[in-house]
Each structure stands twice: as C-alpha cells, then as structure tokens.
Hints:
Cofactor: heme
Radius of gyration: 24 Å
CATH architecture: Orthogonal Bundle
GO molecular function: heme binding; iron ion binding; monooxygenase activity; oxidoreductase activity, acting on paired donors, with incorporation or reduction of molecular oxygen
Bound molecules: protoporphyrin IX containing FE
CATH class: Mainly Alpha
Pathway: Secondary metabolite biosynthesis
Oligomer: single chain
Number of helices: 17
Largest sheet: 4 strands, mixed
Shape: globular
Strand content: 5-15%
Amino acid sequence: MLDLxxxxxxxxxxxxxxxxxxxxxxRHSLPxxxxxxxxxxxxxxxxxxxxxxxxxxEEWGKTYGDIMSVNLLGKTVVILxxxxxxxxxxxxxSDIYSERPYLPMGGELVGWDHTLALVSxxxxxxxxRKYIAQALSVRAVKDYRRFQTNxxxxxxxxxxxxxxxxxxxxxxxxxxxxxxxxxGYPVSKDNDPLVVLxxxxxxxxxxxxxxxxxxxxxFPLLKHVPxxxxxxxxxxxAAHWRQLLLSMVDSTFTMIKKDIAAGTQTPCLTSRxxxxxxxxxxxxxxxxxAASAHTGGADTxxxxxxxxYLAMTLNPAVQQKAQAEIDAVVGNGRLPEFEDRxxxxxTNALLKEVLRWKPVTHLNLPHVSKRDDVYEGYHIPxxxxxxxxxxxxxxxxxxFKDPRVFRPERFLEADGKTPVAIPxxxxxxxxxxxxxxxxxxxxxLADETLFMNIATTLATLNISKALNEKGVPIEPSTDxxxxxxxxxxxxxCKIEARSSAAADLLKHALETV
Length: 513
Ligand code: HEM
C-alpha cells in the first residue's frame, strides 16, 4: 500500500486545484462547451470511457453537439466531433493548439517526451519537425521507391509461403522499410532482433500512455515515490520500458555512427541529417528525431495495411474491381510500379477508403491549448486537452453516404476516374493524419508504402474468408484492439495466388531481393 499521508496530501492538493479551476472558470462570462453533468471533485471521471471512446463520444454528440467538454479532476477535455471544428481550432489556430499533454508516466518516467510525438512545442519541437520534414518530403521519399517496391513484392511472396502468418508478414515488411529508410538497417530474417526490440518498445508506449492506466498521470507528485516503495510498481514498469526505449535509440545511433566512420553506411534519413549537421550539439536532437520517425512510422502503417487485408476479406466485389483495373493497366507479365499509379484511380480511391473506414488513430493524438480561447460562444480554458474524434469525422453521413460501407467509389466522380473533392478534407480525403502543426510528418512515406503494398497485393493475391471444417466461410470480426494506435483484432482469412504467372513473378522477386 502507498503511504496514506502521501495519498491524503495528493488528494488535498487536487481538491485545492479543483476548487481554484472551478472558481476561475466560473469567473469567465462564457460557458464551457456542453457535456455530461460532472460530480464535485472528480468531474466526469466516472463517465469517461476506458475504451472505445470514439463510439461513446459519438453517442454523447447526439445530446451535446459537435463541441463538448468533460472535466477530469479539474482538467478540461474538449471533444471535437466535427471536421469543421477541428480545422477551425487545430489548423487555423495552430499557434494556440499545438501543445501536447504532460504525461508523467509515458512522457517523463519512460522517456517518450524526448520524441517528437510528445515533445512540448518549442525550439526542440521545431528542430525535430524540420529534420523529419526535410528527410521525408514528397520529393525525398521517392528515393525509397525501389526498396518499397522490392519489399512489397517480397512480402506478397511470403504470404504465399505461410499465408497463416499474414500479419507477421505485414509487420516484417513495414519494419524492414522503416529501419532501412531511417537507419539503413537491413532486415534479412523473420524475428530480426531490432524488429523484436522495436515491438517491445512500442508495446511499452501503448501501455504507458494509456489514459487512466496509471495513478501517477492523475497525481504527478507520485513520480517522486521511489521504486522500492510498496505499491510503486509503476516505477519498476517505467524503468523497464525506459531501459528498452533507450537501448533501442542508443544502439541504432551507435551502429550508424560506427558504419559512417567505417565508410560502410547505406545512405538513409539519419546519415543524411548527420551529414548536414553544422554542430555536434545537434546530434542528440537528430538521434531523437530519427527515433521519432522510426516509432511513429511502424505501428501506424502496419495497422493501415491490416485494415486493407480485413476490407478485402469482407468485400470481394471491391477486390475484384481493383484487380480488374490493375490487370488492364499492368497486365499479367509484370508487377505494379509507382509509374502506374496515375492510371489507377480506383486503387488510389481504395487506399483513401482504407484510411477513412477505420482510421489508425480514432481520436488523433491529444493536442493542448496554450492559452484561453473562445470558439462558437464557448470558453476553452488554457491547458485544455483537445481530442479530435477522427472516427466520427470519417463516418459523417452528411459527407460520406452510408459511412460504414467500404466503398472506394465515394472518392471518384461518376466517370470513375476523377477524384471527388471532399469538403473540409485534404488530399487524402479524410482526417487520418491529424491536424495543424502536429500533422503527421510521415504521410508521404506512409502513402507510398500503402500504395505499393496494396497494388502489389491486388495484382498477385486473392484474399477471402477462410472456411471452417464444414466448408462454411468464417465471418471475421471487425473489432479493433483499443489503444492510441488501433488495429484490427487478429482474424483468419484465405490467401492464395491469383494465377501461376503471379506466383512465378513473386517467386522471382523474392529470390532477387
Ligand atoms: C498510415 C500511416 C500513418 C498514419 C495514419 C499516421 C497518423 C498520424 C497522426 C494522426 C498523428 C497525430 C497528428 C496530430 O497530433 O494532429 C501522427 C503523428 C506523427 N507521425 Fe504519423 N501516421 C502514419 C505514418 C507515419 C510514418 C510513416 C511516420 C514516419 C516515418 C510517422 C511519424 C509521425 C510522427 C513523428 C508524429 C508526431 C508529430 C508531432 O507530434 O509533431 N507517421 N501520425
């Protein structure tokens, strides 16, 4: 048990903070956005969902509207259920809404506040964004096209050898790509030690940043409780995850510097940044910028590709239509190339639909307001946490008719070729990559990874429902694993080559990777 005096003083402190916040917000002439009625002291803690928040917030929206707020122990959380509100605040007033929340457990104790995703806005934030923007610009990612193409082909070839491990193959191909782009590191086998370590590190991220999972996030003073103290298990967990994170970040950076010194380094994001570095004091920021791109790019692209496989398992007609388009453009004697992309409007629309149908981050990453603001007659206090419900925005029936249906056609005009301009969205036609100054800096790389994997899979493989022992199709679950980065729960499906010619092309591709 924790020391009762400690708990009493923490609760006492929280009560004073709560009273102060109540007092200062009641002084404001404008109301907070509406929301469920809070209780004294704890606010809406008892109503705040532990998982599937996006569904709960969608329901709340029917009563309270598109801009809602709840109170968690004195902290205001604003929930945005419309694209317009998210764009008005997070894009157009990004000078106010680009902070990240302070997370004692995942951020400070484990160390994720060194990475771009959790770093506070300031010089270090700007520097890291500049590094990543420069290294992963639309132009820069074209350099990785050959590797993207080869990896996508090798991945499809592996799907034919052990189709039951299709999720592992998706993971391997995304990790191989990220590690090669960021560190020039070649992944040459299943269960590569760096890939395994990175997965443990990312599991630590999900667990340590899970809202409500650790008391220290509610009472930050607990971070001073020593690890040996009874009940301080969170400190031991934090130490374990921190050690994993630091060992991954340091070992990759040491490896790359050694290779550069020996002249054996393959050009990559980190080596290019080190080449252009004007002062060795920049090294630490480059190290964490690289780690940010590595950790930001792995699970997200895996989730999107898993969603593609799930959508194909469930929607054979869409799969056949996309395959027919690819056959007409690419033919049967070769595999898709990036140059084919402009002639594949339906495949491009299918990619957009993957990101709309089941967005990777249902609630975006949280933003925080830097100062008091007023929007649509509501007061948004300084320090509010802003959750943009991407899931609801991507399923808005006034913009996307029959939103739960997987239908790429929604992104094309009646001619089946011209992309439709969707109001209040960007070129990828949904909100999958977030907002404002925190917009995902890896979107060009993600877009190319997804395109090449989707096009190669459609060209060579058929994905369908697996059959049970009686020959009856097994209906896959469309449930997603809860978490900041969500992904489909594992399911079984059948994967086979579309033709012997396709199997031969893949076999050859695997031999030459
Ligand atoms: C399908 C793939 C991806 C999706 C759906 C995705 C989505 C997102 C979203 C929603 C955010 C939060 C934006 C916000 O707070 O408003 C984000 C941030 C970020 N993403 Fe991605 N991402 C993907 C791939 C990548 C890749 C490939 C990389 C790098 C190689 C990357 C690196 C990052 C980083 C570093 C951040 C933090 C940015 C910041 O806080 O300033 N992401 N991503």
